[in-house]
Amino acid sequence: MRLSRFFIPILKENPKEAEIVSHRLMLRAGMIRQQSQGIYSWLPLGKKVLDKVNNIIREEQNRAGAIELSMPTLQSAELWQESGRYDAYGKEMLRIKDRQDRPMLYGPTNEEMITDIFRSSVKSYKDLPLNLYHIQLKFRDEIRPRFGTMRSREFMMKDAYSFDLTREGAEHSYNKMFTAYLRTFDRLGLRAIPMRADTGPIGGNLSHEFIILADTGESEVFCHKDFVNFDIPAENTDFDSVDGLKGIFDKWTSLYAATSEMHDEAAFNAIPEGERLSARGIEVGHIFYFGTKYSEPMGAKVQGPDGKEHFVHMGSYGIGPTRLVPAIIEASHDENGIIWPESVAPFDVVVINMKAGDEACDGTCELIYAALTKAGKDVLYDDTDDRAGTKFATADLIGVPYQIIAGPRAVANGEVEVKDRKTGARETMTIEAAINRFVA
Question: Tens digit of pLDDT for each residue in 285-297?
Fold first, then answer.
């Protein structure tokens, strides 16, 4: 992509409405634009990052055996009346009526709808276990939306729902998602700490939040310090191994963690003083096991091996991609801008032409741009006639992991400079070596 043809409305000044670093940098880098309170458009640069985040989430859900579908954003109130949550959910739910005066709602979550899909299609235990997920926009009318897409009213959610014949099977499904979440956040360049948590309006009695440590976080974290450096499950983890996944779950939970809402001081105090960690963090994922809370009132049952009908045991598992993007920025930035992990960066490398219009510089940049693009790299080519300082500021602000800088003097010697955005390290190398650095 040539920068001269890309839509990226950079802001030179810090927006007054931005209270935290991620909101400020997302606005300045032209990633998002506010349309109304708590509702944002994702502009091209932001959407590229969001899509890469979603792709990693999708890959790890598929690896764990979940199956993707797509459910509508608007839901019938009848389903929520069946479950008993329509009146209980509160003012966060946006309630509307269609032209036939039928009560509808803009879905804040999908337990009822997925249960309806399940009960109309699955009748036998032989079709279990089953885990269905989708990645979709949702709406919750937050009383105080703030921090940009960190706490917005309209947001994107990956929500998965598991169905099992027994509690034991449901716990294995829970451990699958627990393990998949650890892998997902690690691939996003984040260390997410799983915290024992309150189940809230979702219901149930087993729940974990996944927290990214950040000073701007709204959650308080109390846990063993080893949580920050614990081993992440490998790519070849056997998700069918009940004992293997239980072992992963037990290793994490044996160190004990709880959110501040649980007020479990005795458990935290049992950790030796030098091994305690108390900090603030951002919730980026939440998983629940709630048994038959929805299957019983909504009649979601299957015939078991004993010939009798059984209400299925369910769990739900959420990750907020539109919250993850600012969380990554909160965890990875400096005074010049964003520092993206390579896995989610909007571009792999930016080629900076220091003297657009100069035949040698133009030719070198075109050569590098073509070679890297042909090799499958996502390349941004700064072919603008801006001043050098502006070009460097833009590249640093948007956080592309590597910069290839082509100036007249270096090009005359058959060389370019390669800069690592994260470390700031610069290396002069031949043009061929620079190309091979990224395609080898």
Answer: 999 999 999 999 9
Residue type, 15: P
3-state SS of 416-439? EEEEECCCCCEEEEEHHHHHHHHH
Give the model confidence (pLDDT) of 140-181 as tens digits: 999 989 899 999 999 999 999 999 999 999 999 999 999 999
Nearest to 406 by CA among 425, 375, 429: 429
Encode 124-137 in three state secondary structure.
EHHHCCEEEEEEEE
Dihedral of alpha carbons 89, 90, 92, 95, sign: positive
User: 321-331 vs 44-63: helix axis angle to the nearest 10?
Assistant: 110
**Cα–Cα nearest to 196, from 138, 133, 256, 106:** 256
All domains of the chain in start order, with CATH: 3-338 (3.30.930.10), 349-439 (3.40.50.800)
In 10-164, which ranges are E strands?
32-36, 39-42, 67-68, 74-76, 94-97, 103-106, 130-139, 154-164
Residue 393, CA distances (Å) to 329, 357, 390, 408 in order? 17, 21, 5, 20
pTM for the model stands at 0.94
In 29-103, alpha helices (H): 44-63, 77-83
